[in-house]
Amino acid sequence: MARVETRVSFAANPARFLEEEIKAFVLENPDNSLKDIDGSPIFEEPLVGFADGDDRLFYDYKQIIGDFHLTPREVLERHLSKSLGEAESQIEGISVICWTLPFGKETRLANSKMTEGPSRQWNNARWLGQPLNDSLARHVVSCLEERGYRAVAPDKAPFFEVRSLPNGRCSNFSLRHAAYAAGLGTFSLSDGLITPKGIAMWCNSVVTDLELPPTPRSYVSHVANCPFLVDGSCGACIKRCPAGAITAQGHDKNRCREELYVTQKHWLEKPGYIRGTYAGCGLCLTRVPCESRIPKVKAPLRP
Ligand code: SF4
Ligand code: SF4
């Protein structure tokens, strides 16, 4: 099992402590294993980033996504009033701690050989990885609360909701948009986030009143890591999708959902597959140039 060797104390460096704690939680966790298959890790080392919760971007998201989309400040205010009963709480600084969990190499390799539905490894990683990601969020919240800070995982809060809009389902706090704000990657044609460790990953966030140094966004645009969206090249994910849910116009969430919940429903009956609400798919995240890295762009955008 991989270990995180150097550990710094929270008092000495809260940002580094949290980054190391998140990495250690994943790398040293006995549940980070495809136990019933080959014992390979579900997730590789996480990427961790921090965003200023009052970053202008979070207010822009109300225009880009919808006015129902909550800013981190609104998330924490709702958490304090609804969960803790604090009517008038003064919140000064606010941060969003974000991480991405890259799927393990063996899982990606197994899924890259598939063409109509997910491999058993991908299915197991999807349904065993979810509780691991959830328990990591609880762990980060506990770390902060034990030290006197207020914290909440937005997607586990009672006010978190997913709306059905004409162009697909949309939550009132996008974990991908938070990760983008925290410098972890840029958006893709397939509607994912391409990080330095690729697109085959999950992300998550915790909002807190601990002030942390924001991670620089080292990209020149919100689509800089996807060659198709920069110079029209690649497009491999279009061919990978068995449902035709990815086109030059982007990702059709409704068609994708139909494929997952209806067309691929019978995959849940296969031996060794975990019977979640859907089998997993993820074909557009594997055997594509952005699977585990940022692909080369022919004509990079200039600042
Ligand atoms: S496969 Fe190519 S076009 Fe599709 S998201 Fe990845 S980099 Fe972009
Ligand atoms: S998850 Fe599957 S159905 Fe959805 S876009 Fe990707 S390949 Fe297509």
Which whole number gives the mean pLDDT?
A: 94
The outline comes out as globular
Number of helices: 9
- In N-to-C order, the SSE pattern is HEHHEHHEEEHEEEHHEEH
Q: Give the amount of beta strand, in percent.
A: 5-15%
What's the helical proportion of residues?
25-40%
Which hetero compounds are present in the coordinates? Answer: iron/sulfur cluster
What integer value in Å does the Rg equal?
A: 19 Å
Q: Could you describe the largest sheet, including whether it forms a barrel?
A: 4 strands, antiparallel
Q: What is the number of domains?
A: 1
Number of beta strands: 10
- The largest beta-sheet arranges its strands as 1-2-8-3
Intertermini distance: 41 Å
Q: If you had to describe this structure to a student in words, what would you say it looks like?
A:
With 303 residues, the chain is an alpha+beta fold. The chain has one domain (14-285). 32% of the residues lie in helices and 13% in strands. The protein is built from 9 helices and 10 strands. The chain has helices at 14-27, 56-64, 72-83, 105-112, 120-146, 175-181, 227-231, 236-240, 253-263; strands spanning 47-52, 95-102, 151-152, 162-165, 168-171, 186-187, 193-194, 201-208, 246-247, 250-251. The chain has a 4-stranded antiparallel sheet with strand order 1-2-8-3, with helices on both faces. Strands 4-5 form a two-stranded antiparallel sheet. A two-stranded antiparallel sheet has the order 6-7. A hairpin with a 2-residue loop joins strand 9 and strand 10 (250-251). Helix 4 runs antiparallel to helix 5. The N and C termini lie far apart (41 Å). The model has no long low-confidence stretch (mean pLDDT 94). It binds iron/sulfur cluster (SF4) (2 copies).
